[in-house]
Specification:
Blueprint lengths: L2 E3 L4 H10 L4 E2 L12 H17 L5 E11 L2 E3 L5 H11 L3 E12 L5 E12 L4 H10 L19 E5 L2 H4 L4 H10 L5
Parallel strand pairs: 1-2, 1-3
Antiparallel strand pairs: 3-4, 3-5, 5-6, 6-7
Helix pairs in contact: 3-4
Length: 186
């Protein structure tokens, strides 16, 4: 069975490679904007990514979208250093949610499964000097919420409730179960 990751994310590629080396990567061109609750938006975008790639590729297509939410507001990928600094100040000393929508679609059988995984993340209080030093690393670029839990920002995180790999953008346990439901065993 051909397994296709509908994402250009290096993190998702690395995480899927922990489960199998037998997959191809075909990034989608889908805009990452959905409607509804954070979980509904994440699933909507994940489905759109899987279906866009599935029009040209055959097999089991995996789409994903990750959203960082605090106080009901979505923190996307920061467009500037100043926006990233504001996001990190807002996360400082607080808990927020990371939602990842997954869509697994076997376009040969028509079977499709989708879910949204939520993980709660607690930041310790982070001062402006630490934020500036972090931004100097460049790690915040192309990251929802302006941080990467698996990188330097790990020093800001004092707790999580839920799946660690979800915060990286790809909940592997949930993904494995969805793949089984459409006939793929890893």
């Amino acid at each position: 069975m051909n397994l296709v990751l509908a994402s250009g994310s290096p993190r998702r590629r690395e995480l899927l490679a922990r489960l199998t080396s037998d997959f191809t990567v075909v990034p989608s061109g889908v805009e990452e904007h959905g409607s509804g609750t954070p979980s509904e938006r994440a699933v909507e975008v994940a489905k759109a990514k899987a279906h866009e790639v599935g029009r040209a590729e055959r097999g089991v297509i995996v789409g994903a979208d990750t959203i960082v939410v605090i106080d009901g507001e979505t923190l996307g990928k920061p467009e500037t250093r100043d926006v990233a600094a504001k996001m990190l100040r807002r996360l400082s000393g607080r808990e927020h949610s990371v939602f990842t929508g997954l869509c697994v679609w076997n376009n040969e059988t028509g079977e499709e499964r989708s879910i949204c995984e939520e993980t709660r993340v607690m930041f310790r209080t982070v001062d402006d000097a630490e934020i500036e030093a972090y931004l100097g690393s460049g790690e915040h670029l192309d990251k929802a919420g302006a941080y990467a839990i698996q990188g330097v920002a790990a020093k800001f995180i004092c707790g999580i409730r839920g799946d660690y790999t979800n915060v990286m953008g790809f909940p592997l346990c949930r993904l494995t179960l969805l793949l089984r439901e459409v006939g793929v065993r890893l």
